[in-house]
Automatic annotation (TrEMBL):
<keyword id="KW-1133">Transmembrane helix</keyword>
<keyword id="KW-0808">Transferase</keyword>
<keyword id="KW-0812">Transmembrane</keyword>
<dbReference type="InterPro" id="IPR028098">
    <property type="entry name" value="Glyco_trans_4-like_N"/>
</dbReference>
<keyword id="KW-0472">Membrane</keyword>
<feature type="domain" description="Glycosyltransferase subfamily 4-like N-terminal">
    <location>
        <begin position="5"/>
        <end position="155"/>
    </location>
</feature>
<dbReference type="GO" id="GO:0005789">
    <property type="term" value="C:endoplasmic reticulum membrane"/>
</dbReference>
<comment type="pathway">
    <text>Protein modification; protein glycosylation.</text>
</comment>
<dbReference type="GO" id="GO:0000030">
    <property type="term" value="F:mannosyltransferase activity"/>
</dbReference>
<dbReference type="Pfam" id="PF13579">
    <property type="entry name" value="Glyco_trans_4_4"/>
</dbReference>
<protein>
    <submittedName>
        <fullName>Chitobiosyldiphosphodolichol beta-mannosyltransferase</fullName>
    </submittedName>
</protein>
<keyword id="KW-0328">Glycosyltransferase</keyword>
<keyword id="KW-0256">Endoplasmic reticulum</keyword>
<dbReference type="InterPro" id="IPR026051">
    <property type="entry name" value="ALG1-like"/>
</dbReference>
Length: 388
């Protein structure tokens, strides 16, 4: 939603950005003169009674809270929201749209009821109510965006909602990290984390486990015999099973014990989409364990990794092929054993420039994929009438 706000602001639109400010907004959002932050207070003190009662109470209170906030801002031409979370925001936005005479735009990233079904089961009454709710209020929108062609087709077949596909694209600041900045990052991490420390100290060079700066010339080089850097990110939800990666790493270690000439692996795991640009732009391989609850959305972490020209191994689900092209920009696996074999194959000649890992990176560099701003201008701006 911050990307949407920045795109609208770039075209001279005045934007009121509503949300729970659990994390600090992006600096570009804070700097924009056209974006006004409208924080929604976090609810607390509602954990009274059975869980079902707590949930219903929370939805009712949030409905009043969101509607009150929406009716206090200046009259908007459009109300744009992301789903999920859509309960109760879709209904609140629709009522506010009726009051203001505003157009309602929903950006579908998944179905909320399929996420609920991961913890409650597909036939749970709450899940069935959530599905009914999304279908009912989703049809009341004026425009709809979605993140895959598979979702666009499903929205029409099952919801009778016409949508336009707006693929998630990396922002312009997702790019490969220059070697000099990589070295600064690794040296900073080496102060606190053992895997980033150089194996041997050198009086003439500042070294990390991955890079070294020559004391006389000042140039930075990749360290000889360096480990490979693997990165992943997670939101620790039911649609990600990190035991798959852990079992694959155990197999990788077994390969080494059996005599395979493989590099040591340093694995960095960050919170969902806080997989910072410096890490993604400095890593050798990304791993994605996201399994879509609906089978219709795409992992944004992979989008950002591709923006940094970082090859990815991703676990299979139905529409993943719309993003990850097997044997072109990465690999798709189905279980830990297949992931372990892929890690062995990719790192067998590490850090040679002849293997598949380098080929995937070169393919990503050559793809010249659209960035968010370009994609947004082509897809969303025409819906708004191209008015600056």
């Amino acid at each position: 939603m911050q990307y949407h706000a920045l795109a609208l602001a770039r075209h001279g639109r005045q934007v009121a950005l509503l949300g729970y400010l659990q994390t600090r907004p992006h600096r570009d959002v804070l700097r924009s003169e056209n974006i006004r932050l409208v924080p929604v207070a976090e609810l607390s003190g509602l954990r009274v009674g059975p869980k079902l009662f707590q949930y219903v109470l929370k939805v009712l209170v949030q409905s009043v809270q969101l509607l009150y906030t929406l009716l206090r801002i200046e009259q908007p031409s459009y109300i744009l929201l992301q789903n999920p979370p859509g309960l109760p925001s879709i209904a609140a936005a629709w009522v506010a749209g009726l009051w203001w005479g505003s157009k309602l735009i929903i950006d579908w990233h998944n179905y909320g009821y399929t996420i609920m079904s991961l913890s409650h089961g597909r036939s749970h009454p709450l899940v069935l109510i959530a599905e009914w709710y999304e279908k009912l209020f989703g049809r009341l929108s004026d425009y709809n965006l979605c993140v895959t062609d598979a979702m666009r087709k499903d929205l029409w077949v099952n919801f009778k909602i016409k949508a336009v596909t707006l693929y998630d694209k990396p922002a312009s600041y997702f790019k490969e990290t220059p070697l000099d900045l990589q070295h600064n990052l690794f040296m900073k991490l080496a102060k606190d984390y053992e895997p980033f420390k150089a194996r041997t100290a050198s009086p003439s060079a500042a070294r990390s486990a991955f890079t070294e700066r020559d004391g006389s010339s000042g140039s930075v080089l990749k360290s000889r015999g360096r480990p490979a850097l693997l990165i992943s990110s997670t939101s620790w939800t039911e649609d990600e099973d990190f035991s798959v990666l852990l079992r694959a790493l155990e197999d990788y270690e077994r390969f080494i014990k059996e005599g395979a000439r493989l590099p040591a692996l340093v694995c960095v795991i960050t919170e969902f989409r806080l997989c910072c640009v410096g890490f993604s732009g400095s890593a050798d391989l990304g791993v994605c364990l996201h399994k879509s609850s609906s089978g219709l959305d795409l992992p944004m972490k992979v989008v950002d990794m591709f923006g940094c020209c970082l090859p990815v191994c991703a676990i299979h689900f139905e529409c993943l092929h719309e993003l990850v092209k097997h044997n072109e920009n990465g690999l798709i696996f189905r279980d830990s054993q297949e992931l372990a074999k892929q890690l062995k194959m990719l790192f067998l000649d590490f850090p040679s420039l002849e293997g598949k890992l380098h080929s995937f990176r070169e393919n990503l560099r050559a793809s010249r994929q659209l960035r968010w701003d370009q994609s947004w201008d082509q897809t969303v701006l025409p819906l708004l009438g191209n008015k600056e």
